[in-house]
Amino acid sequence: MNHSSPKKYHVKSFGCQMNVYDGERMAEMMAAQGLSAADSADDADLVILNTCHIREKAAEKVYSDIGRLKREDGSRPMIAVAGCVAQAEGGEIARRAPTVDIVVGPQAYHRLPELVEQAKGGKRALDTDMPAISKFDHLPARAKQARPGAFLTVQEGCDKFCTYCVVPYTRGAEISRPWGDIVREAHALVEGGTREITLLGQNVNAWTGDDEAGRGQGLDGLIRALAKIDGLERIRYTTSHPNDMSDGLIAAHGEVDKLMPFLHLPVQAGSDRVLKAMNRSHTVESYLKLIERVRAVRPDIAISGDFIVGFPGESDAEFEETLGLVRDVDYAMAYSFKYSPRPGTPAADMDGQISANVMDERLQRLQNLLNEQQARFNAATVGRQCAVLLERTGKLPGQLIGKSPWLQSVIVNDSAAAIGDLVHVEIASAGPNSLIANLIRKAA
Q1: Which residues lie closer than 8 Å to 404 by C-beta, 6 or more apart?
Q2: pLDDT (tens digit, 9 = 90+) per residue, 343-380?
Q3: Looking at residue 407, which CATH number applies to its domain?
Q4: Containing domain of residue 49, as a range?
Q5: What pLDDT, in 10s, does the model give residues 395-408?
Q6: Are 26 and 112 in contact (CB under 8 A)?
Q7: What separation in angstroms does the CA of 266 have from each of 135, 329, 342, 365, 404?
Q8: N or C: which end of the chain has fewer CB atoms below 10 A?
Q9: Number of folded domains in the chain?
Q10: Are residues 339 and 311 in the same domain?
Q11: Residue 259: closest CA among 324, 309, 198
């Protein structure tokens, strides 16, 4: 199908924070080409579906979204499928969804302007290469952020090859962005109004690089350098792997004031046998020791995690071990999912696939426990004073919502405050998913 030059674009991103970052960069690329942003797909000449392959039936959901991209007059916008589903499905998308004009993987989206040019002439454009050269070298300078918080990808890909995971196949091998590129992007974000930066990576704490003096650094060294940027008030990072929690990074949690007291450290299961079958490189004991060490340097830190229930072969007793680990750690929050097979991963062909009803029952029990822990953690903050970075308006007049240092959602009722303010509050009450606070003053 021939398309005229698109004038308005719309990016719809699914899944993880890295996809949100990628979606923002694609939007910046389209803006640099002279296109303007559309509020919805209905108003766009170019729709970019930035997909995620982690969730169950991810590909089917993408095909469903593609089918809905049709205007009242029967015409369609130019459609680009980007991200991990594009990488995994490749040419299959073109076969199953002939209305798709562009298929581009997460390591090749810097070529999006060229692919749009190809599609204008009616030629389907496909690029799922994973080149050694970094795509970041080809992206435009960061645009000013409308929000006080921003994501900054520092590392991509994964060499861990967990048996349930498609990331090594869709994002490629681990690669760290150069030190100078990251520092420059961070400065640009702060100059544009960003006050909190979250460093992103599939295994973000595997980041390594040489600083401006040629000295080898890990993520802790990068965090210490970014903490020196005037105007940057807060630093976070996600997602971490237990195998890459270095001594320096643990120490940074006790020494860098701008590094927020929050650590997302996925464990996935509480059984050593299941962890080995998952090809996780840690044990329950080594994971618990890491948590103990982090809490020793930062006693108020909030711990978050990921869990998979119903991994092939998981017994009732092994699931009980997971519940035991959860009780030992006492999480501030966590994400939990039923195992679902991903084509091409070793776990998909393992014996002992667990029935859906057993997984449902286990997930409910796990989530009940995690919800209890989150509610208890939130309740423990009542009466505490802390700084909150206000990010958006609430549902009621004068209501603003921001994040506590522990990544809790905090509602502040005060018409004197504004989005982007870092305010000092006292937590007045706590619900299961958010807190209500009274404004004391703007933070210095």
Answers
A1: 381, 386, 387, 388, 410, 427, 435
A2: 889 999 999 999 999 999 999 999 999 999 999 999 99
A3: 2.40.50.140
A4: 8-127
A5: 888 899 999 999 99
A6: yes
A7: 28, 12, 19, 19, 21
A8: C
A9: 3
A10: yes
A11: 198
